[in-house]
Amino acid sequence: MIADCIEMDRLSSEIEELGNISEYPLPAVTRVLFSDADLRARAWFKERCLSADLSLHEDAIGNLFATWLGQDPDLEPVATGSHLDAIPNAGKYDGVVGVLGGLEAIRALKASGYVPRRSIVLIMFTAEEPTRFGVGCLGSRMMSGVMPLARAELLQDENGLGLNHWRGRAGHVSEMSDVLLDRGAFSSFVELHIEQGPKLEERGIDIGVVEKIAAPAAFRFHLTGAGGHAGAVLMPDRHDALLAGAEIALAVEKAAITSGSADTVATTGVFEVKPGAINSIPFAVKMEVDLRDTDMAARERAEKMILTQSADICTRRGIECSLETINSDEPAVCDANLVSLVEAKSLELGFSTQRMISRAYHDSLFMARLSPITMIFIPCFKGYSHRPDEYSSPEAIRKGVAVLAETLKSLSL
Amino acid sequence: MIADCIEMDRLSSEIEELGNISEYPLPAVTRVLFSDADLRARAWFKERCLSADLSLHEDAIGNLFATWLGQDPDLEPVATGSHLDAIPNAGKYDGVVGVLGGLEAIRALKASGYVPRRSIVLIMFTAEEPTRFGVGCLGSRMMSGVMPLARAELLQDENGLGLNHWRGRAGHVSEMSDVLLDRGAFSSFVELHIEQGPKLEERGIDIGVVEKIAAPAAFRFHLTGAGGHAGAVLMPDRHDALLAGAEIALAVEKAAITSGSADTVATTGVFEVKPGAINSIPFAVKMEVDLRDTDMAARERAEKMILTQSADICTRRGIECSLETINSDEPAVCDANLVSLVEAKSLELGFSTQRMISRAYHDSLFMARLSPITMIFIPCFKGYSHRPDEYSSPEAIRKGVAVLAETLKSLSL
C-alpha cells in the first residue's frame, strides 16, 4: 500500500529543518520572497528534489517545477504543489505541507513501485504571500496570465526595488515571457494545504475537500494630512492622517460585520505611519485592506461601504486619500470530478471527509485558469495560521499526504 | 552696534549646509541621535566652534559645551544653546536656530569688540528629540538629574541597543557620572528657538518671550491580541490589536478635545503593527502617545480619560494592554528678571514683543532645574515645525540673534 510507504518521520524532520531556514528563530518563521532566507530555502528544497530523482526546471521568476517523468511524456502532466514563502512571524506549515507533502507523496509512490503514465510535476510557486510586492500568488498569477507581464515589471517593493531587481539577485535572468503557461498545460492540479480555519478540527474530520475558493479583493490607501509639532498645533487645526486611518480601519471592520454575509472578512493588515515619531503629528499613512467572501454580492456591498465611508472620513478630516485596488479576484470553482475523486480516495483509506469552501487565498485560485483543480485540506490547531503557533499533527499530515498520493496515482495512470 | 556685526549671510548658509547633513535629502532633514548624519553634523559643528576660537568640552553622552572664556573664569558662566538632532522628515530650523544662532551671537559679540566678564557657554544638547530612545531632552534631562544615570543605562532603541552602545560608537567613553551638573552650574540659561506655533507670525510680532513651558507627558501602549490568517478567521472570533489601537487613538484625540482646556493637545505619533502583512490579522501594536498642557489639571483629566477608555476598549476586544509612562514632566516657570531683560533688549532694538507660553518641549524645561531660564521665540511660517516646509526668514532669525546677543552681553558683563 502506498500509505505504508509514507515516511512521516522524514517528512516531519524536513518540516522542522525548513522552519529553521528563516529570518527569525523558530517558532516564528519568516521567508519573504528572494530574501536570504527564501533563497536558502529554495536551495535546500532543490537538494531534496534532486535526492528524490526529480528533474528541475525554474522559470524567469523562480517558479520551480520538479518533474517525475511519466512513461508517456507527451501527455499533459498532473501537477501538485504550493509555496514555501512565509510572511513575517508566521508558522511552519502554511504552504510547506503542500510542497514537502507533495514531495513525500511522490517518494511514497516511487517506493511503492508505481510507475506513472503521465508525468507528475511538483510546483513550488514564487511568492504566494504578498509581503514583498503587495500582491498575493504572484507566481501562479503570472503563470496563468491573470497578471500581465507588463504590469508585473512595474511592481516595486517598499524600497522601490522591482521584480527585475529581485529575480536578478536570485539568479533568474531568462525572458519573463517563459513564465506564461497555456491553458491545458496540466491535466489537473491538486493542492494539499492546512485548513487555516477551525472547522475540521472542531468536527473531528480528517480531510476537507475544497469545492470553491473565496474571492479576495485588496486595496491600498495613501492618506495624506498635515504634519507638525505634537506640542504646538492645537487640536482643531490638525489634519492627522493616523486618526483618519484609525476611523477607516474601524469602518473596514464594520463593513465586514454588516455585509449581510457571516462569511465576509475584512482586515487592515498594513498600517504604516509617517514620520512615526512620538512628538510629531502623523502626516501620512499607508493602509492595506484585505476583503473576502465566497458571496460576491456581499463582498461588493462591503467594498462599497468601505469606499463611501473612507471618502467621508477623509473629507471631514481634511485628508487627501488616494485609493488603489491591488487585486480584485473572481472566486474559483473546483472541478466536480476531482472533488469526487479526492472524496473517494479518502473513503478508501478510511478517512472522514467534508466538502468545504476555502476562505483563504491559494495558488489553486489561479491554477484554475490553466486546468481542473481541487484542494485537499487537513485540520490545524484551532485554525491558527500566519502565526508562530500554527500546527498540524504528523498524523493529520500523513493522512493528507496519503490522499494526495492516491489522487496523483489515479490522475497519472 | 552688536546687531551690525551679525553676518546673516554666513548664518543662512550654515543653516543650509547643516540641512544637507541628513539621512534624507533636503527639504526633509533627519538626524537621529548618533546616526551617521548626527555624527557628521556634530563634527561639522565642532569645526565651526573651533573657527570661532571657542574651547570645546564633551560629556559622556555627547552634550557639547563650547566656551568663550570670560575675564573672570571663576564666575558661573552664562549659557545658551539648543539641539541639532532632528526627527525623521523634519525641517532645518528646529533647534538649529538656537545652536547656530547662538554661535552667531557669540561671533557678533566678539566682532563688536566686547569682552565678557563671565564666560559664555554655547551648549549643543544630545537628543532633544526622542526618536532613538523614546525619551525627549535626554541630554538636559540627564544633566539636570531628572533622569537618574541608572535609568538612562537601561534605555534601549527599537533594536535593543542601549545608550552605552550608542555613546561608545560615537566615541564617548568617559564615566556617565560626569553628565550630572550642580544646581547653579550656570548663572542663567537663555534658549533661542523658532515658535513652532503660528501666533507671532499671525500677529506680526518679532520676538516671543517665554514665561512658562508646558508640561508634557508621554505613554507607551503595548497591545497584544491574536493573529491569524486574514481570510480564515471570522470577524466575531477576532482579537485584532490594530482595531483596539485605532479606537485608542481616537479616544486620545477625544480626551484632548474634551479636557476643558483649549490648550490640551494629544497625539498618537507612533503606531507600529505586527506582523504588518496585508493577509494577516494584526496581533500586536506599539503606540506612543504625547499629551501636553500648561494646565496640569486639564492634562490630568485628559490622561485619566485616556487610561480609562483604553482599558475599556481592550477589555471589550479581548486585547492585553500594557501601559508604560515614558515621562510625566512638571511645567517650568521662567525667571521674571530674565523675561524682563529679554523684553527690554528687544525694545531697545526696536522689535515688538509678546510674552507667551511654550507648548512645545525644550531643553530649557530641564535647564530650569539648574539655573534661571527663559526662551526667545521667533516667528516661523504658519507655525509649521517637524516637517520639511518648516521655515523662518533670515530677517526673523537676525532679530532673534540680535536679542540673544544683547541679552548674553547683559548677563555676562
Automatic annotation (TrEMBL), chains A, B:
GO molecular function, one term: hydrolase activity, acting on carbon-nitrogen (but not peptide) bonds, in linear amidines
Cofactor(s) required, per the database record: Zn(2+); Mn(2+)
Keywords: Hydrolase, Manganese, Metal-binding, Zinc
Top-level taxonomic group: Bacteria
Signal peptide start and end residues: none
Cofactor note: Binds 2 Zn(2+) ions per subunit.
Family matches, as InterPro entries: Amidase_Cbmase, Bact_exopeptidase_dim_dom, Peptidase_M20
Binding positions for Zn(2+) 2 per the UniProt entry: D94, E129, H386
Binding locations of Zn(2+) 1: H83, D94, H193
CDD domains: M20_bAS
SUPFAM superfamilies, per the entry: Bacterial exopeptidase dimerisation domain (SSF55031), Zn-dependent exopeptidases (SSF53187)
Family: Belongs to the peptidase M20 family.
Oligomeric and partner information: Homodimer.
Protein name (database record): M20 family metallo-hydrolase
Organism: Luteolibacter pohnpeiensis
